[in-house]
TrEMBL record, chains A, B:
The name this protein goes by in its record: TetR family transcriptional regulator
InterPro entries, A to Z: Homeodomain-like_sf, HTH-type_TetR-like_transc_reg, HTH_TetR, Tet_transcr_reg_TetR-rel_C_sf, TetR_SbtR-like_C
Family annotation (Gene3D superfamilies): Tetracycline Repressor, domain 2 (1.10.357.10)
Keyword Cell membrane recorded: no
DNA-binding feature ranges: 32-51
HTH tetR-type domain boundaries: 11-69
Keywords: DNA-binding, Transcription, Transcription regulation
Taxonomic source organism: Microbispora amethystogenes
Annotated PANTHER family: HTH-TYPE TRANSCRIPTIONAL REGULATOR BETI, HTH-TYPE TRANSCRIPTIONAL REGULATOR RUTR
DNA sequence: GCCAAAACGGATGACTCATCCGTTTCACTG
DNA sequence: CAGTGAAACGGATGAGTCATCCGTTTTGGC
């Protein structure tokens, strides 16, 4: 779904381009706008018109995943044990980063090409803050960890799993979960 | 120090090129062999002759730092409380990664351009194994963490500190230490 | 059906990269 | 110390990538 309403042909091309982008991300191929154009059977200019930079396309590809994460966080806030809630959400976030390769770079980028993506990240940060506050209020988490640490830490977990010489996506997800477990153990305050 | 003994002019140029490489790394500028040539007042071909790829130059720049780390680990093994020894070494490794930007990418690369660098990484892995074994034998560390986890985890810590929107190198080092503290708390088995 | 606006596409110039080869420097020998 | 072959030098250049520009086509309201 493009930002503004698009003409029929434009919408069709937009879709095609995003589909190619998604495919490239899944293959782990870096996004090159010229190649995207060829693969989408579309003129180069069309790609550049919709997505001025590779990052813009990447962020568009990442958007559904980010929205899912935000929705998950909002659901999580509606109740339950603070620690379990936080932990489950973090596991979901780690999984998302491994499963969908477009998410990590968007998280790690200090500034985003798409305003909407920036807003999503902002919302996520706020939600992280609330989840943390709950946990802190319940006295189950190290008071030294702040809202601003959460995205970096999650990026670190995903990155660590990427560096580990695991073979498949399945293994990498398992590794990420294991590393997240270590981290959570370190963040938790024990009785 | 190049691998093979070099002619005087070749040695001079090699040095110049590495110096430029070091400067670029410190500035955070990506290494482009053509620019390196210009900055070192040397022909492009000379650069390519000594360093076929940017990675090769990067690894050469990283070598002293890696050797220092290996030396540190060897010293650490000569005695002391297993937990303290392991912890201190990990803090040194984290610091090195933040201080010297050439180290992280070399760690994270699955395969290295320079055989010597590959060997250094291998030695480091072995030393990590020994430090871990000591800690495990003393019962102070989670038995689920293996030698193969250490480099990825350290990369994760450094990466997380990089993602955190800190301003200076000083702050980033502090953030890395804080994150490493969390991680260590998670790896440690408590009485 | 007609027209203006919107979108299209690919040819093209700017830029980057890495090789090749004619020239220069070095170090060893007599 | 002059001569010589090997080693190293450097920059011109061809291949390849990137992103813009503009003449043509498509769309959708009147």
């Amino acid at each position: 779904m493009p930002a503004a309403p698009l003409r029929k042909d434009a919408a069709r091309n937009w879709q095609r381009i995003v589909e190619v982008g998604r495919r490239l991300v899944d293959e782990g191929t870096p996004i090159q706008l010229n190649d995207v154009a060829r693969a989408a059977s579309v003129g180069v200019a069309t790609v550049y018109r919709h997505f001025p930079t590779p990052e813009a396309l990447l962020e568009t590809v990442a958007t559904p995943g980010l929205e899912a994460l935000v929705a998950h966080a909002e659901r999580a806030l509606s109740g339950g044990d603070p620690w379990t809630t936080l932990r489950d959400f973090l596991f979901a976030a780690a999984d998302a980063q491994i499963t969908d390769a477009s998410i990590s770079p968007v998280f790690a980028a200090p500034v985003n090409a798409l305003p909407h993506v920036g807003e999503l990240k902002e919302r996520l940060a706020v939600l992280f803050g609330k989840l943390l506050d709950q946990a802190r209020a319940a006295g189950v988490i190290d008071p030294g960890v702040t809202q601003a640490d959460m995205v970096p830490l999650m990026c670190g977990v995903a990155f660590a799993a990427t560096v580990h010489p695991a073979t498949g996506t399945e293994d990498r997800a398992a590794t990420a979960r294991r590393y997240l477990t270590f981290l959570l153990e370190g963040l938790r305050t024990r009785a």
